[in-house]
Specification:
heterodimer; A: mainly alpha; 15 helices; 66% helix; elongated; B: mainly alpha
Chain lengths: 475, 379
Amino acid sequence: MMKFKVSGLVADLMPNIRLIQGSGHFMLNYHADNSGALHTLRLGYCCVTLVFMLLQYGCNFVNLVLERGDVNDLAANTITVLFFTHCITKFVYFAVRSKLFYRTLGIWNQPNSHPLFVESNNRYHALALKKMRRLLYIIIVWTSFSAIAWTSITFVGESVHTTKDPENENLTISEPIPRLLVRAWYPWNAMSGMPHMLTLIFQVYYVFFALAHANLLDSLFCSWLIFACEQLQHLKEIMKPLMELSATLDTYVPKSADLFRAPSATSQDNLIENDYNSKNEDLKGVYSTRQELGGHFRGAALQNFGAGGVGPNGLTKKQELMVRSAIKYWVERHKHVVRLVTAIGDAYGVALLLHMLTSTIMLTLLAYQATKITGVDKYAATVIGYLLFALAQVFHFCIFGNRLIEESSSVMEAAYSCHWYDGSEEAKTFVQIVCQQCQKAMSISGAKFFTISLDLFASVLGAVVTYFMVLVQLK
Amino acid sequence: MEKLVWKDSLKINLFVLRLLGLWPRGDKVYTFDLYTVYAVFVITCFLSAHTLSQVLNIFVVYSDLQNLSETIFITVTNVLNLVKIYYFIKNTKTLKQLIEILRSDMFQATPLQIKIVQPDLIFLKNVTLVLAGTVGSCLTFWCSFPLLDSSSRGNRLPFLSWYPFDTTTSPGYELTYLHQVISIWALAASNLNLDTLISGLMMLIGAQCDILCDNLRNIKAERFSQEFVKCILHHKAILKFSEKSNEFFNMIAFGQFFTSAACIAMTLFRLTVVSPMSSEFSSLTFYLGAAIQEIFLYCWFGNEIEIKSSQIGYAVFESDWTAASLSAQKSMVIFVLRCQKPIKMSAFKLVYLTLETYVAILRASWSYFAVLNKINTPE
């Protein structure tokens, strides 16, 4: 039996993966022991989960159809059905496209490395790990809290719904219905006693697992984005030492300190005294000429290396090769990050599109429901709860998508902010290529329909507010 | 070369802020001296106490829509004002550093260049005067309307606030009246000066971009590389300066945008409720004008920065670069690549200070007003 060893993203995201497997998603890889019996057992568990989810969803849907007479009930049931559509969609989506997920998880299995940048790489890797764990805890807490809140609110208030009075067509009476988390139709009578208890437990299981399905997949997506962002930070950080190293590759290093010597009498140029700002203690952190000209000063130090076999610029052959390999490492690592982001987009883009479609309809209906709020009661609490949960789900992936866009577009600024003008031709060419390549930010799109960013969240929020205001005016 | 030419444009602002206790002398932040005591006194007794009493009043009258709308819209502005003052004080050190940087040699200008940026300086001055005039008239009307309309309402205060003591009889009435007048003038003065100070900073960044463009156009061919490197350093300094300024007023701009649409909407709503030809009506009109102008200040100068910084790339081509060395031309390519991304001022990168945002805010406030009107009319 092959020894089970995990590396790369799979190792980092192991808690996520285990939770996803535990909740019944069709993730059948990443087990130490994948023999026939255990595999069939796990497959069976997933299928059973699928069957339960679909059954309950079907019962919800049947209830929707049965209660379509009353407008209020129709709206409320449609919202519930749409809410759980998210969860079923994500479940089925993962089962159908699990290959793409495995591919994305395996993309970082063999990253390149360079002795000069190992320390920085490890530091950002650790940072990414910390953030991914923190996100996972937050998601777990949030899901559990929502499930518990849902369960507890079931026991508040009356468990009734209004129907037409059988005697008088124009009146409505309230008829008791089973006290359950979700209104559904069952072929048995679930009003009280043992059937009620069992149905209640089944519904608690259903709600908790449905929420877990949706949220865990979203958090897997966001964890990938966190990892990509931290890699981009690593690349930005090593840009400066890379510049300084490559400045030693050419023979002529223009001394920019000479630019700031005292001018001739006819010159009208204004100059910064070399130590003007270092005299002013307060400004050290803000703007310092010394920092700007630092490359020149460091360059001199590096040129004193190597006594024997010295090249024209004071470096040995070995050091030259190391510098060239450092540039190669940067470029290869950047390409790797681009591959990762593309894979993430391929794996999860369609799921995001479906999510946004369902959310749009659901939020419209929620805006309508919100106009009927009369006071602080169970109805208001449920409507606001649904609203907050839906908006939080959209916010969850929008904020990480936005961070990716920002990080990738600031690589160019990082390249520009080091003293490339003091550098060699090779350094300038490298900076130019980097600037041109990083002009376009990397972003995740929902199957090319829209970009995942905070603009999307703002437009969703704006749309909800607009629908609400329009519906209030129509009342 | 006049070294203090930039700080002069902010001189009046800083003077008024010093009067209000918000600008410690010299290069220091608040130390344990008399000025700090004075500052604490002004801030707690006048600014905070007044706002607090208005906030408490909201809790007292929140069921009555009429009284509520009357209190809320001025309270929101005052609370926002306090928040702005808090963040201003918190970031005083950054601001002092920024003003110190303005004195550095990097940001100096030749007399010809000062002529180029003169229109912007004058524009800022004019806009400030107009805004100050609007705010002043608004406050005059507001503080005097109980005196002019007193026949119908008895002993009324200019602002509905809650006080723990009886304010309808003298001497309580006169003292509270005076306190309210002083507080509202102090609040309005601090608000006005904070906004114009921030706009002044943005205007100066725009002016620096113009100076850089002029420098780039006039690079002499024989010393191209050296002068170009100086321009690159100037550009980097401008970028750093604008980033630091943006950091400074991030929260202030965010709070401003967050509340401005609601504020304008409620003012419009109040205008439909109050009877015209009363002094309250005219004070509300001036208040509306002041609110609209306040947002305009931020958005206009932010927009100017974006436009001017995107012109820097073009300015390089107007220089005599064909005679420069290959190495310098390569540097030019990288420089132009960077300049294609203009400097955008924002509030936490969520809301950008541009004219599009301004239009969006005006539209939003109109729609909120329409909703409020609809809710109110059937009653």
